[in-house]
Amino acid sequence: MIDLQPLVDMNGESRFSAQFKTIQEGTTSTSNNCVVKSGANASGVNCRVLIYGDYTHPYSLVVEN
């Protein structure tokens, strides 16, 4: 699932972040938009990208392997 998080407008532009999270152990990423978690209580990858835009039209966001 991809979550959309509204953010405060910047310089008059609407913006939001799109976030993807997996808790599957052993998952990795080389993207600068992702943080790899590991340990007893946290594993997987969290990824986030900042998007300048608004909610007046649909977006197509894809997470690829």
Main sheet characteristics: 4 strands, antiparallel
CA-CA gap between termini: 14 Å
Outline type? elongated
Determine the oligomeric state from the structure: single chain
**Helix percentage:** under 10%
Total DSSP E strands: 4
Number of domains: 1
Strand content: over 45%
* Order of SSEs: EEEE
The helix tally amounts to 0
Mean pLDDT across every amino acid position: 87
Poorly predicted runs of 5 or more residues: none
What gyration radius follows from the Cα positions, in whole Å?
Answer: 14 Å
Largest sheet: spatial strand order? 1-2-4-3
Structure, described:
With 65 residues, this protein is mainly β. The chain has one domain (2-52). The chain is 0% helix and 49% strand. The chain is built from no helices and 4 strands. The protein has strands spanning 2-10, 13-22, 34-37, 44-52. Strands 1-2-4-3 form a 4-stranded antiparallel beta sheet, with no helix packed on it. A hairpin with a 6-residue loop joins strand 3 (34-37) and strand 4. The protein is elongated and about 40 Å long. The model has no long low-confidence stretch (mean pLDDT 87).
